[in-house]
Amino acid sequence: MCGSLLLTLNLLVILSLGLIFNVAHSMRFDLQSGTTKCISEDIKSNAMTVGKYSVINPNDGFPLPDTHKITLRVNSPHGNNYHHGDHVEAGNFAFTAAESGDYSACFWVPDHKAPLTVTIDFEWRTGVAAKDWSNVAKKGQVETMELELKKLHDTVTSIHDEMFYLREREEEMQQLNRATNSKMATFSFLSLVVCLSVAGLQFWHLKTFFERKKLL
Rounded CA gap, 51 and 125, in Å? Predict the structure, then answer.
């Protein structure tokens, strides 16, 4: 009984961590014509990410008006383009991140003489959440428990990789802090030298002035 309870608690902890480290964003937002909206996601290197988007048709049963079509660009932190949808009503993208950092998905609606609002559905998943488990189950013909174990294995692997990624980011931040502290110490020393030099020059100037006036 105790062993089963501990196993259940461990599974819950792993699943909870998996939810934290593997992100799935699903949202609906409005975008005014002539404006751009960018959504960013912090993705680590070699992580899988998938996304899909679609414009909500304001007139059910009729084709989507051309005025409601959008443009989407998905770029990496270094500006590399991973997806470009031009004047489309729906689309999807999938790629493996080649570099770590903030990836951005920017939506744009062309400007029109009569202002309008476009409603967009957008879903962005990364890590284990990006894997299509229904296809895995169909292809492998695995039982439910075996599928859950596969999910847990991938979740644990993702958490392990995420821990190393966070450790690397922490080391980078520590190096940045040390470099900043070193620069601040150098700047403070130079400021002190300048202040002392100015004070010395002022003292010398006043002394010379008083000597000329024969006050000293």
Answer: 6
